[in-house]
Automatic annotation (TrEMBL):
This is Peptidase S9 prolyl oligopeptidase catalytic domain-containing protein. Residues 177-376 form the Peptidase S9 prolyl oligopeptidase catalytic domain. It comes from Bordetella genomosp. 11. InterPro entries: AB_hydrolase_fold, FrsA_esterase, Peptidase_S9_cat. The lineage of its organism: Bacteria, Pseudomonadati, Pseudomonadota, Betaproteobacteria, Burkholderiales. GO terms for biological process: proteolysis. GO terms for molecular function: serine-type peptidase activity.
Length: 380
């Protein structure tokens, strides 16, 4: 059976980018009709990332303008809905543009709209700054509507995501289960990368430990019930952190990684042979890792392996993966599951019939978000 909708059949990266936006509709942060208007203008121009930026940003500016109009009328809830959609469109537009001032400004536009949208639609979600090695890591704090100290999740994103998107497709569902969420941009992610220039590091227990310290100090948090979670590349970061910092009470890999060097050895072959089954532009990995070229990246990635540490991950562990994942084949998730030392561990692989069989459930994000939120609710 056909397992996902490819808007641009000849361009996997663009199809994935479209689905990223479309799936935000489930949380009121995208309109399928508006995204289709963008897509119709892009058809026949697959691979033109300049045009991709233009069409997404044009729509974002239009929708932001509608939000301003409603704000002037005193309709703050309505303006907030427009601002959240504009934020997602700005972010989708900048994803495939190489590092530049234009990219940073487009992301700043995303941040501006996102903050205005949250203030009007989700006032319990507030900005946070987590102290980290002489600076801070930017985050959003989703305070669940519960009484007394409650469980909490520290949520990291992936190679080309940002905390704003994590709030929408993961954080909101988790908070609905009575669990606080710190959606944070760690080194090499989102705002920390774009506006602070902090590259990725293999020893993610350091930023994860800083995040734990921040949440554990809050009176509304039960410090004995703090989980760490990662999405996509975060499926390496979170298990690494939980294996090294045993203060975490549970760990979720939303997309299981085991050997990130091996994963990129495979992806590099695809890229250099002209293959299309890639999810990020060529500049992405060197930028995230803070390296000048792919050779230097591959050298740095030699440390991004879980073989020698997974056995030390002893807290309850959950890994969710799609059987048709072409970005991170399901074998990586199975190897991670086998290596994890926890007695309480679960690997769930979603099929095309169930929905969510692609990378991190990009074909049906709501399925993945609710499965993970339920596991956290049951476990914490």
């Amino acid at each position: 059976m056909s397992h996902w909708f490819e808007y641009f059949p000849s361009n996997h990266m663009w199809s994935q980018g479209m689905m990223f936006g479309i799936e935000m509709a489930g949380w009121g942060a995208a309109s399928i009709s508006e995204i289709d208007q963008i897509g119709q203008k892009l058809k026949g121009h697959e691979g033109d990332n300049e045009l991709w930026w233009k069409e997404w940003v044009d729509m974002a500016r239009r929708i932001e303008g509608f939000g301003d109009d409603e704000e002037a009328r005193g309709h703050r809830l309505t303006s907030g809905a427009y601002y959240l959609r504009a934020a997602v469109y700005y972010f989708c537009g900048e994803r495939f543009i190489a590092p530049s001032e234009r990219k940073w400004q487009t992301y700043r536009d995303c941040l501006r709209c996102f903050a205005k949208g949250l203030e009007r639609r989700y006032p319990r979600i507030t900005r946070a700054e987590v102290p980290y090695e002489g600076t801070t890591l930017p985050a959003w704090w989703l305070r669940a509507d519960v009484d007394g100290p409650a469980p909490t999740v520290v949520m990291f994103d992936g190679l080309d995501n940002a905390k704003e998107m994590s709030v929408l497709f993961g954080g909101i569902e988790i908070a609905r289960r009575g669990i606080h969420v710190l959606a944070i941009d760690g080194p090499g992610q989102g705002e920390a990368l774009r506006l602070q220039g902090i590259p990725s590091r293999y020893d993610y227990e350091v930023p994860a430990g800083a995040a734990y310290d921040w949440v554990a100090a809050r009176p509304e948090v039960d410090a004995r019930r703090v989980a760490v979670m990662g999405f996509s590349m975060g499926g390496y970061y979170a298990p690494r952190a939980a294996a090294k910092d045993h203060r975490f009470a549970a760990c979720v890999a939303w997309g299981g990684h085991f050997d990130y060097h091996e994963a990129w050895t495979r992806r590099r072959r695809i890229m250099e042979s002209g293959g299309t089954k890639i999810s990020a532009p060529n500049f992405q990995l060197p930028w995230v890792l803070g390296k000048p070229d792919m050779d230097a990246c591959m050298k740095k990635l030699e440390d991004y392996r879980l073989q020698d540490v997974a056995g030390d991950l002893l807290c309850p562990f959950f890994c969710l993966h799609g059987e048709n994942d072409t970005i991170v084949p399901v074998e990586f998730a199975r190897r991670l599951y086998e290596a994890v030392g926890a007695k309480n561990k679960t690997l769930r692989v979603l099929t095309a019939y169930e929905g969510g069989s692609e990378h991190c459930q990009e074909d049906n994000r709501q399925v993945g978000a609710n499965i993970i939120a339920d596991w956290l609710g049951d476990t914490l």
